[in-house]
Amino acid sequence: GSEAASEQGQEEEETEDRLKEHMDNLLDKSAKMRQVALQNLRLAFSSKILSEFLLERRLMLTDSLEKCLKKGKGEEQALAGTVLTLLCLQMGSGPEGEEMFHSLKPLLISILMDGTAGTSVRQSCAKALGMCCYIAAADLE
Q1: Does residue 71 carry a pLDDT above 90?
Q2: Which residues lie below 8 Å from residue 41, measured CB to CB, with a gap of 6+?
Q3: Any idea where the Interferon-related developmental regulator N-terminal domain is (predicted)?
Q4: Which of 60, 85, 97, 115 could lock 136 by a disulfide, CB 3.0 to 4.6 Å apart?
């Protein structure tokens, strides 16, 4: 019993270390590195419940995703929208999810309204806006 618990604890620690590394890579100068980090975060967020881990890091992660949406191009922006949706799912309908949604809502709307943004980017932002609104918006309007 204690050996299995120890092994599980070590596995969780390794997972958290990898997630921290991916989050740090969101701030890398290389667009390719940021895209790889976004892909890895997308896989992690869609395969495991990480809400406790993310709760402590939500502000840094939200800021990083905002930068990817603002300054990134094409694929990076689309991935950031997807990761944002998954992050909102992880945060849930509590005050943390609502805070994240309200901070990024204007940016998502501006990208949707931008006719020069690529279709995949606008589609990803529309999904993020819809899902986050459904999950985290306390205001019914």
Answers
A1: yes
A2: 19, 22, 23, 26, 83, 86
A3: 7-140
A4: 97
Residues 6+ apart with CB under 8 A from 40: 18, 22
Q: Which CATH superfamily is domain 1-136 in?
A: Leucine-rich Repeat Variant (1.25.10.10)
Q: What six digits make up the tokens of 8?
A: 């599980």
Q: Are 100 and 65 spatial neighbours (Cβ–Cβ below 8 Å)?
A: no
Model pLDDT, residue 139:
67
Tens of pLDDT along 87-131? 999 998 889 889 999 999 999 999 999 999 999 999 999 999 999
Q: Which two tokens stand for residue 123?
A: 């589609």
Every domain of the chain and the residues it spans: 1-136
CA distance 47 to 42: 9
Q: What angle do CA 77, 59, 36 make, to 5 degrees?
A: 35
> What distance in Å separates the CA atoms of residue 71 and residue 47, rounded to the nearest whole number?
28
Task: Give the burial class of 68: count Cβ atoms within 10 A of its Cβ; 0-12 exposed, 13-18 middle, 19 or more buried.
Answer: buried
